[in-house]
Amino acid sequence: MMAEANGLDAGGNNYLRERMVELIKIVEGFFACGVASSTYGVPDASGCAEPERIFANVGKLLLSTQIYDMQRIAHDVSGGLIVALPGPDEDHNPATAAHLEELWQGRDDISPARRRDVARFLGDITASDTAGWYSLISLHGGGSPAATSMEIYRSYPLEDKVALVEGLLDRGLLASESGESGAEDQPGRCCADGCQPPDED
Question: At the topology level of CATH, where does 2-156 sit?
């Protein structure tokens, strides 16, 4: 919205589009981890749902390490207006209001007031005292990135991944001693009867 109010078209500008895709990747990465941690959660001993630990901690690590990237991208694509605006008291100052409206005009089809409001909103969430609090709580809220990383490594089923590769190697994925590919040993699927959903019991 800020880029459009500034007269730019993110869809037609490679640089802006790449920044927007980066921002989308970050934001939807958090969301996907939240959905996955909820979907794969299990009841604890008391019967309360416990989020799946790896997805939950990966989401937390993404947020804590990329909150500043989100702010940087917002600042980059928005321009300096978000921190260069006069205070709200000037919006209705009869001595300056008309001149400010003229200065705030970006695109003809977007009002100066709209451009101002979007810039103020971005400033509030990325370049204010509150934004600093959000940054810090994103970084350290619920545990530091170091603690989150430790939990990810501790909980991750590395042995299962090793067993998966060993199983693939045992099925002859590497070339045989004669130099043949071993493809004749492969049924073309991971299970003889086709893939089946895991037994939840």
Answer: Butyryl-CoA Dehydrogenase, subunit A; domain 3 (1.20.140)
